[in-house]
Write a structure and sequence with these properties.
Number of strands: 5
Helix content: 40-55%
Number of helices: 6
Strand content: 5-15%
Shape: globular
Distance between the termini: 6 Å
Radius of gyration: 16 Å
Length: about 180
């Protein structure tokens, strides 16, 4: 990747898909900073700046997106690369940017296939805390299947690149050029 050209990667996906783990590995490989939407979310909640809870997903997306959008614009203006990781990237993110800005932004969604979830459900739960502490009970297999199916459909409909986990979970992905 040309260090003079900024690149932004939106890395989103369904719950328990390994977004944080993949973002951390990309950061180590490319030296590109990661901005975690979960950290921003919890900062707003714990600071009392919002009455929302960690379970208010749609409202949190609306709350976080104006901040994230302007951070991305600032990164682009300053020729900085950034990985924005988390489940709060709106599906219509492209509407927030000019065509020139969109040329520097790549959106990807990490998805586990139904066969993977069926075969590896216990492994998914066992590794759920690999990158962060989680609150609340884990999703059932049916909930996880439904969430990944819905996320795959929405991501495909809105032009996200799908990173499918089909046989083995190997969070190995190349930063787009």
């Amino acid at each position: 990747m040309d260090p003079k050209t900024s690149r932004i990667l939106f890395l989103t996906g369904a719950t328990h898909s390994g977004k944080t783990l993949l973002a951390d590995r990309l950061m180590k490989r490319y030296g590109i900073p990661v901005f975690s939407l979960d950290l921003l979310k919890m900062g707003l909640i714990r600071s009392g700046r919002t009455a929302l809870t960690p379970y208010d997903d749609d409202a949190l997306t609306e709350e976080l997106w104006p901040i994230v959008r302007e951070m991305v614009r600032t990164a682009l203006e300053n020729a900085r690369s950034l990985i924005v990781e988390g489940g709060y990237v709106p599906w219509n993110w492209a509407d927030s940017f000019t065509p020139e800005e969109r040329g520097h932004i790549f959106a990807a969604a990490l998805i586990m296939t139904p066969a993977y979830v069926e075969t590896h459900y216990d492994d998914i739960l066992r590794h759920a805390r690999a990158a962060e502490k989680r609150m609340g009970p884990p999703p059932s297999k049916e909930e996880l299947l439904a969430e990944h199916r819905k996320t795959a459909e929405m991501a495909a409909r809105h032009g996200f690149h799908l990173i499918r986990i089909e046989k083995d979970y190997r969070p190995d992905y190349r930063f787009p050029r």
